[in-house]
């Protein structure tokens, strides 16, 4: 009796170890796959975020498939026979086991939290994710930015429903965001109406733009290409169209773009909402009344939001 | 079915009895019997589930193509706002209150709730604010369209300028819903504390009672913040105050604190009773005691405590300072510890059991599967750098639909099937139940899994059109949503036909342990009346042979049929 149960335990131990090994390998493979589920990495923040996501994907895979394996085993092998109305063995608990499965998850969680706080700090060193100025946004623009120079400075104005980018140094305005690669940039985010969200998935950064505040956001693009900026905070009827393109280019291309832009006369920038609203009025509105879109901002360069983008 | 075949206690009661003449009329009256109110809640809730689901299917119809081509954008925005609002305030809270009404008095051996009239008032507010909410579709300005969060300033933009706006009606409905839930919570908590059968100490209460108690305590603590916030926003909208308007010196982020201070705990109000359901069903249908009862019971209150200090994780990318981000990240992650305790306890409960894969058990297992998936994506969302990327994207939408539909609603279905024989006196049809389960399980995963890759790719939530690179997963999700719509059909057929002409249910079809199973099916109006049993052991004595109450055989095998 004793020896046979020992033999069975060895067998079970081998099975559990082998399956755990399979899960570990699978979790590791999933952590590599995780990078492909995300957009291209186009900022210094992106690899840090993706590394953390990859790490948590491994943990998540292991936990999820571990639990599912137990459930599958039980469902396959622990079913009652058809007319078996008896009860199972009444095991009411095991204090040691319960303490273990309280303490180990707590340790894992503290581990994840520790790693995440470190990543948070690194992101903050790369450029504080945001600084908030309360009160009148116009008066608080100076001074603060001094210690972050020589960052490029771009003023971002969000409206219902368009984005406007002003380059104060070059006296250029645009509805397409151009940025030099590998150079830190400071955005000063302002909203004229409701809360909007400044979100460039390829940069992995997002910042709500709160009306009545000017919020600074720092980042450094690292990859040339054309990316989407999306409004991430629901902002009303044409929220979905409130997108702009972000063009990251070499410093030479960027400077020549700025120069050319400065010579252009002001013209209406991009606003899909204005175009759709005009069409909606002409056809007779099918839906409910809406806030009227702000007129397209007058800018030097409208740019485009119809070209293929990299993420 | 003749009257003579009913237990005399059932006949003399004012409570509706399935099959008895004219009894359906009583369900439309101001009845104070918790069991009638429970069925009223559940029926009204399922009616609104159908409406909310229909709105979701129109939304998925719009999202099956990238362009905005099915409904006008203003209509889409109204649809998603009302979908969320109806599902939360008109479906899930009422359906859970229905289960609370059915189960709390019968499980603790009380004749009724502590305040039966208050109970009835709380219920009748539900159709009132339901009508207010739904009728806002008929306003010239349309219903509220700023999402179920209703963040100012976008929510206080009122293009027509009318005094009666969709947003105003929405806020009125939400405030009334809050009042109704507070009334309910006072009742449930009082009943649990004051009206337990003799011998039922706190640590002999079924886990469902623990979790209902924990959840309703959260309602009492959190709801005043939401209800207050809703009233302040209504003042901003109608009277022109500026609590949240920046141009008047107000702060829009303050509203977000008010809103999430309640609305995050609200998730635990929803999921805690479902944890209770899992605990009951896993032990009953695997014929084993719940593993680590005391840990599981106390973990409920650990979740309450932690659930109250995590709300800022909903707006990490808002104007939130760094220290707050780190603090709320840690508290949020800590919730996984008591939650993990419960999950491991359920696994240990079913491990080595004698499982019966009937409909309630299938729904519980499917619900646990979905819950674990939601749990691991929840840890990702708690992690600030990841959350900054996926916040307000479809990743979040996928996560919480796994929690709310995948885990909570599947758990609620499990409960409805499990206790259906007890409260209607009829058996449901197992084949239809299993069909319902498989359609629901496949539909849920097909609908909500694709939202995770979409969110990781950067598709914002609440959009009525999107870039073409998101098309594939959206098509899959839309097909899943239509399957989910179909899945409700066998459920409705099963519930209606079983209640009308299903086979008579025995007193205890699952051979389950619990005071409610010592009552006839359906129980008489006053439950145990004068013969309240004395509880002498814990609630999950499967396989121990220990009786639950003194003189147990006197309560067992009471048939509705007088042999």
UniProtKB/TrEMBL annotation, chain B:
It is found in: Membrane. It holds the Pfam family COX1. It is a multi-pass membrane protein. Keywords: Electron transport, Heme, Iron, Membrane, Metal-binding, Respiratory chain, Transmembrane, Transmembrane helix, Transport. GO terms for molecular function: cytochrome-c oxidase activity; heme binding. PROSITE patterns: COX1 (PS50855), COX1_CUB (PS00077). Gene3D superfamilies: Cytochrome c oxidase-like, subunit I domain. One of its GO terms (cellular component) is membrane. Residues 24-536 form the Cytochrome oxidase subunit I profile domain. InterPro entries: Cyt_c_oxase-like_su1_dom, Cyt_c_oxase-like_su1_sf, Cyt_C_Oxase_1, Cyt_c_Oxase_su1_BS. The chain crosses the membrane at residues 36-59, 79-99, 120-139, 169-195, 207-239, 259-278, 290-316, 328-350, 362-382, 402-420, 432-450, 470-493. Cytochrome c oxidase is the component of the respiratory chain that catalyzes the reduction of oxygen to water. Subunits 1-3 form the functional core of the enzyme complex. CO I is the catalytic subunit of the enzyme. Electrons originating in cytochrome c are transferred via the copper A center of subunit 2 and heme A of subunit 1 to the bimetallic center formed by heme A3 and copper B. Belongs to the heme-copper respiratory oxidase family. This is Cytochrome c oxidase subunit I. It comes from Synechococcus lacustris str. Tous.
């Amino acid at each position: 009796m004793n020896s046979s149960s020992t033999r069975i335990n060895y067998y079970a131990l081998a099975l559990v170890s082998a399956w755990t090994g399979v899960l570990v390998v699978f979790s590791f493979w999933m952590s590599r796959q995780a990078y492909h589920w995300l957009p291209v990495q186009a900022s210094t923040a992106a690899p840090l975020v993706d590394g953390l996501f990859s790490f948590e994907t491994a943990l998540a895979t292991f936990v999820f498939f571990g639990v599912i394996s137990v459930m599958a085993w039980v469902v396959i092998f622990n079913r009652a026979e058809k007319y078996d109305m008896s009860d199972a063995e009444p095991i009411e608990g095991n204090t040691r086991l319960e303490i273990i499965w309280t303490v180990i998850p707590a340790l894992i969680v503290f581990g994840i939290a520790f790693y995440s706080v470190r990543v948070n700090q690194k992101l903050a060193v790369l450029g504080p994710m945001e600084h908030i100025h309360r009160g009148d946004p116009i008066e608080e623009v100076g001074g603060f930015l001094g210690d972050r120079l020589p960052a490029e400075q771009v003023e971002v104005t969000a409206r219902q429903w368009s984005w406007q980018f002003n380059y104060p140094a070059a006296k250029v305005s645009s509805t397409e965001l151009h940025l030099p690669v590998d150079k830190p940039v400071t955005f000063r985010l302002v909203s004229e109406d409701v809360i909007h969200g400044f979100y460039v998935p390829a940069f992995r950064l997002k910042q709500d733009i709160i009306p009545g505040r000017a919020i600074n956001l720092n980042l450094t693009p690292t990859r040339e290409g054309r990316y989407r900026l999306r409004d991430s905070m629901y902002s009303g009827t044409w929220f979905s169209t409130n997108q702009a393109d972000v063009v990251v280019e070499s410093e030479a291309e960027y400077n020549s773009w700025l120069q050319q832009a400065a010579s252009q006369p002001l013209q209406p920038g991009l606003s899909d909402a204005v175009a759709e609203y005009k069409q909606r009025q002409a056809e007779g509105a099918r839906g409910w009344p809406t806030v009227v879109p702000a007129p397209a901002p007058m800018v030097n360069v409208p740019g485009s939001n119809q070209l293929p983008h990299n993420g | 079915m003749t009257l003579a075949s009913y237990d005399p206690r059932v006949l003399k009661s004012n409570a509706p009895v399935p099959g008895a003449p004219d009894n359906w009329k009583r369900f439309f009256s101001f009845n104070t019997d918790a069991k009638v109110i429970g069925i009223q809640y559940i029926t009204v809730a399922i009616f609104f589930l159908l409406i909310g689901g229909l709105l979701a299917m129109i939304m998925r119809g719009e999202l099956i193509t990238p362009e905005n081509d099915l409904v006008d954008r203003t209509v889409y925005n109204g649809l998603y706002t009302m979908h969320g609002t109806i599902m939360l305030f008109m479906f899930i809270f009422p359906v859970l209150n229905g289960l609370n009404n059915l189960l709390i008095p019968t499980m603790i051996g009380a004749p009724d709730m502590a305040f039966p009239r208050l109970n009835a008032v709380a219920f009748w507010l539900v159709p009132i604010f339901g009508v207010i909410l739904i009728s806002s579709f008929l306003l010239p300005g349309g219903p509220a369209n700023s999402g179920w969060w209703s963040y100012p300033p976008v929510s206080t933009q009122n293009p027509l300028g009318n005094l009666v706006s969709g947003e105003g009606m929405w806020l009125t409905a939400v405030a009334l819903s809050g009042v109704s839930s507070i009334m309910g919570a006072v009742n449930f908590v009082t009943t649990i504390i004051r009206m337990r059968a003799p011998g039922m100490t706190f640590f002999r209460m079924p886990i469902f009672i623990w979790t209902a108690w924990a959840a309703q305590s959260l309602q009492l603590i959190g709801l005043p913040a939401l209800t207050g916030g809703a009233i302040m926003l209504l003042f901003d909208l109608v009277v022109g105050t500026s609590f949240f308007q920046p141009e008047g010196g107000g702060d829009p982020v303050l509203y977000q604190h008010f809103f999430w201070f309640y609305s995050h705990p609200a998730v635990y109000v929803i999921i805690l009773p479902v944890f209770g359901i899992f605990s009951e069903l896993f032990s009953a249908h695997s014929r084993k005691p719940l593993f680590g009862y005391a840990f599981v019971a106390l973990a409920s209150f650990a979740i309450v405590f932690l659930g109250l200090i995590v709300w800022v994780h909903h707006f990490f990318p808002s104007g939130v300072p760094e220290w707050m981000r780190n603090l709320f990240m840690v508290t949020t992650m800590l919730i996984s510890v008591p939650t993990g305790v419960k999950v491991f306890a359920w696994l240990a409960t079913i491990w080595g059991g004698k499982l019966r894969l009937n409909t309630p058990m299938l729904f519980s297992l499917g619900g646990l599967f979905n819950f674990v998936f939601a749990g691991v994506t929840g840890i990702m969302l708690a992690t600030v750098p990841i959350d900054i990327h996926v916040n307000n994207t479809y990743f979040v939408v996928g996560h919480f639909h796994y929690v709310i539909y995948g885990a909570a609603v599947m758990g609620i279905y499990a409960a409805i099937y499990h206790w259906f024989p007890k409260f209607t006196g009829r058996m449901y049809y197992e084949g239809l139940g299993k069909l319902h389960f498989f359609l629901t399980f496949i539909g849920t995963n097909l609908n909500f899994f694709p939202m995770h890759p979409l969110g990781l790719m950067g598709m914002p939530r609440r959009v009525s059109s999107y870039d073409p690179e998101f098309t594939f997963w959206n098509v899959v999700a839309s097909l899943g949503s239509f399957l989910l719509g179909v899945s409700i059909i066998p459920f409705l057929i099963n519930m209606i036909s079983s209640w009308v002409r299903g086979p008579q249910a025995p007193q205890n079809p699952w051979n389950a342990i619990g005071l409610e199973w010592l009552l006839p099916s359906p129980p008489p109006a006053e439950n145990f009346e004068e013969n309240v049993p004395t509880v002498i052991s814990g609630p999950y004595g499967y396989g121990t042979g220990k009786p639950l109450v003194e003189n147990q055989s006197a309560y067992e095998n009471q048939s509705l049929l007088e042999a």
